[in-house]
Design a protein that fits this description.
The chain has about 300 residues and is α/β, with parallel strands linked by helices. A seven-stranded parallel β-sheet has the order 3-2-1-4-5-6-10, sandwiched between helices. The longest helix has 21 residues. The radius of gyration is 19 Å and the shape is globular. The mean pLDDT is about 95.
Length: about 300
């Protein structure tokens, strides 16, 4: 196949993962990068409502990308349960709009999905495992996966677990939001010690995404489902204890809660097998203890 141009379009570029992906491609230097955003559109990002076909069509035709990283999504399970219609529009309908318009300009789409497409009873999950989501968030992302591959079998899906990274506010990540309870030792704090999670730094995901895109533009056998995940098996209780440790904070008030988390049903252990990416020689693992210190430092008031 002819080598494709190095032009990448990133949806959700103002979000936690999207910012890391945008930075990764820009800093590498050889890619022409366009980031799309809507509610948090700042700097060089372009405002675009990806649920609107005409807006997406205009952007695709003008920029003419070879690669589209589709990371825009409603990703908070409890919010999804309360807003099923809005979630369907963003996680499924907009995905179809993105994929159809990408196909019209010959672009490869990498759809960012989640470990929550699995029910969590028989880990680790290989890339060809059959999804069976427990909640509406997982269901909406699975439907987005199906749409992505129905539009073009050449597209790809990257499933990722719970993420943390360079946040704009503590509640932006389900990991970093725990720090507020860690720092308040005035009252006992029950913390989930039931569901097994694999916290993954967004910079690791961004690196893996760029490496996969680099391979795709010279090799059209790069398609289908891939997984990437941190390799540390932790509950939220475990994460909270590490946060307390790296900041030398008391942790006696943090109490393990052995019951399933309230709200939307969550998989017990949806660990992802990352073999397909490892077979391509693509891998990056940051250790939680060292990275979480840097992420939370700006939010620690002594």
């Amino acid at each position: 196949m002819p080598v494709m141009s190095k032009k990448v379009l990133i949806t959700g570029a103002s979000g936690l993962l999207g910012r890391a992906v945008y930075k990764e491609f820009v800093n590498e230097g050889s890619w022409e990068v366009l980031g799309l955003a809507f509610s948090r559109c700042t700097g060089k990002l372009r405002k675009c409502d990806i649920t609107k076909d005409e807006e997406v069509k205009t952007v695709m035709k003008e920029f003419n990308p070879s690669v589209v990283i589709h990371s825009a999504a409603e990703r908070k399970p409890d919010a999804v349960e309360k807003k099923p219609e809005a979630t369907q529009q963003l996680n499924v309908s907009a995905t179809k709009v993105i994929c159809q318009n990408a196909a019209a300009v010959g672009a490869w789409v990498l759809y960012i999905s989640t470990d929550y497409v699995f029910e969590g009873s028989s880990p680790p999950y290989k890339e060809d495992a059959i999804p069976n989501p427990l909640n509406k968030y997982g269901q909406s992302k699975f439907e987005g996966e199906k749409v992505t591959m129905e539009v073009s079998r050449d597209n790809s899906i990257l499933r990722v677990p719970i993420l943390y990274g360079d946040i704009e506010y503590l509640d932006e990540s389900a990991v970093t939001t725990l720090f507020q309870k860690v720092t308040d030792s005035s009252k006992p704090c029950p913390m989930s010690d039931y569901e097994r999670r694999f916290p993954t730094h967004c910079d690791d995901i961004a690196y893996v995404i760029r490496q996969l895109a680099e391979k795709r533009i010279v090799d059209n056998s790069i398609k289908g489902v891939y997984h990437w995940s941190g390799d540390e098996n932790m509950t939220k209780y475990d994460m909270a204890l590490v946060m307390a440790e790296v900041f030398s904070l008391p942790s006696d008030h943090i109490q393990p809660d052995k019951k399933p988390s309230p709200g939307a049903s969550r998989p017990f252990n949806s660990q992802l097998s990352c073999q397909r990416l490892k077979d391509l020689g693509i891998a990056k693992h940051s250790q939680f203890k060292s990275k979480i210190l840097n992420v939370l430092k700006p939010y620690y008031k002594t």
